[in-house]
Amino acid sequence: MPQGIRIFQQKNIGGNMSIETAAIARSPEMTSEERKVVIATLVGTTIEWYDFFVYAQAAGLVFGSLFFTPMNQNNPLLAQIAAFATLGLSFLFRPLGAIVCGHLGDRFGRRNVLVGTLVLMGVATALVGLLPTYAQIGALAPALLIFLRILQGFSAGGEWGGAALMSVEFAPLNKRSFFGAFPQIGTPLGMILATGVLWLLTTTLGKQAMIEWGWRIPFLLSIVLIVIGIVIRRSVEESPVFQAMHRRRKESSAPLAELFRSHAGDIMRTALIFMANNAAGYILIAFMISYGANTLKMPSDQLLLVSTLAAVSWFIFTLLGGVLGDRIGRVRTFQIGYALLVLWAVPMWFLIDSREVLLFFVAAVGLTIALGLSYGPQAALYAEMFPAKIRYSGVSIGYALGAILGGAFAPMIAQWIIGTSGESWRIGVYIAVLSAISLITVSTVKDPKGIDLNVHDSDA
C-alpha cells in the first residue's frame, strides 16, 4: 500500500472488512500513485484547452468569413461579433456539463467521467475540422458549428472540477496549492500547443492557404492528442488514492436545491472571484490576435508567435501562483494578481496600438503575470471553501458560472467596443472594472490555507 495513504478498515456486523468508512492519513510526501493522478489531470486539461483554444483563435481569424459569409459581405464587424458569439454560447452549457458529469461520476467513477469528457471534447473538435462551410451547405454550416461548440462547452463543464479536486484533496498539506496548480497550467500549455500549431501552419502554408483549408489541420490533430490523453488517464488505476477520491465524489453530489439553499453565497463568491481572470484570459486567447491582425493589420504569424511566447509566461506565473498560495496564502496571492490586473488593464492597450511586435509582446506578458497569480491558487482555494458533501458540485458550478460572467462573451464585448468607439483602451476599462469586483470579492474570503479537508468535512 502506498506510504502516503493508510486506510483504516472497520469490521461490519457480518465480520467482513469494509473501506466505506475509511479515514485517510496523509504523509508529507506525494506517493507515486498520487503523482500519476496529478500528471493525468495535467495532460487531460492541456488537451481539453488545446481544443478549446484552437476554436477560439479560429473564431477570431477565419470563422466570420467562412461560416457567416452573407453577414461578412454586408457587415464584417457583425460577422466577427457573431463568430465570437459562438465562442461564448458554449459557456452557457458548462453548468449543465458540471451537473450531468457529476451524476455520472457517482455511478461510473471519476476516471471514467474524465476519460469521457476528454473523448467528447476531442470528437467535437475533430468534427469542426471536417465541417463544410457556408459556401458549401448554406445556413446548415453555422448551425452545425454551434452544435459542436455546445458539445465542447458541455465537456469543459464536466472536466475542471474533477481534475482540480483530484489534484488538491490528496496533495501534501503544505503543497496543496502547488499541486492544485497542475490542472491550472493545462490552460497555458493548451494555449502554447494551439498557438504554436497555428503559427507553424501559418508560417509554412501562408495566410491564403490557412483561410482556404489549413485552418482545419489543428482541429484534426486533436485526434492524436486525444488518443495520448486517454492512454495516460486510463493508466490511473483504481488505486487506494483513486478509490478514496471516488468515495469523496459520492459524498459531494448534493441535490441542487440543497446546494443553492445552503451554499449559494459561496457559489456566487467563487463565480465572482473567477470572473475577471476568465474574461482577461479570453481577451488574450481569442481577441488580441484577431485585433492585431484585422484592425492593426499586423502579420498573423508574428502575432501567433507572440501569443505562444506569452503563454510560456502564463505557465510560469501560474506555477508561481501555486507556490505563493502555499507560502503567503491563497487570498493574498489572488489579491496581488488582481491588483496588477487593475493597474495593467488599460496601459497595455497603448503598447498594443503601437503596432510594434516587441511592445505587443510586453503587453501580453504583463497580462499573463496577473493572470497566473490569480489562477494558480484557484483549485486549492475553491476546494477549501466547500465541505465534502457539496464540494464537487459547488466547485464545478461556481467555476462554470464565473466563466459565463467572465470569458463567455468577453471577446464579443471587446469587438463591439472597438466597432462602436474605435478606442481599445475602453476594453481595458471593462477588464479593470471586472478585476476590481473580483479583487473585492476574494478579499471577503477568510484564507483557508492549511485547513484539514477531512476535519473540515466532518465539521460541515
Question: Can you describe this structure?
Answer:
The strands form two sheets. Strands 1-4 form a two-stranded antiparallel ribbon. A two-stranded antiparallel sheet has the order 2-3. It has helices spanning 32-67, 69-74, 76-89, 94-108, 110-128, 134-137, 140-168, 176-184, 186-205, 207-214, 216-234, 240-251, 256-295, 300-327, 330-344, 347-352, 357-373, 378-385, 388-405, 410-421, 425-442, 453-459; strands spanning 5-7, 10-11, 17-18, 24-26. Helix 1 (32-67) runs antiparallel to helix 3 and helix 13 runs parallel beside helix 19 (388-405). By secondary structure, it is mainly alpha-helical. Strand 2 and strand 3 (17-18) form a beta hairpin. The longest helix is centred in the middle third of the chain and has 40 residues, at 256-295. The protein has a single domain (5-459), classed as Up-down Bundle (Growth Hormone, Chain: A), CATH 1.20.1250.20.
Question: Which secondary structure elements does this structure contain, and how are they paired or packed?
Answer:
Blueprint (H helix, E strand, L loop, with lengths): L4 E3 L2 E2 L5 E2 L5 E3 L5 H36 L1 H6 L1 H14 L4 H15 L1 H19 L5 H4 L2 H29 L7 H9 L1 H20 L1 H8 L1 H19 L5 H12 L4 H40 L4 H28 L2 H15 L2 H6 L4 H17 L4 H8 L2 H18 L4 H12 L3 H18 L10 H7 L1
Antiparallel strand pairs: 1-4, 2-3
Helix pairs in contact: 1-3, 1-5, 1-7, 1-8, 1-9, 1-11, 1-13, 3-20, 4-5, 4-7, 4-19, 5-7, 5-11, 7-8, 7-19, 8-14, 8-18, 9-10, 9-14, 12-19, 13-14, 13-17, 13-19, 13-20, 13-21, 14-15, 14-17, 15-17, 15-21
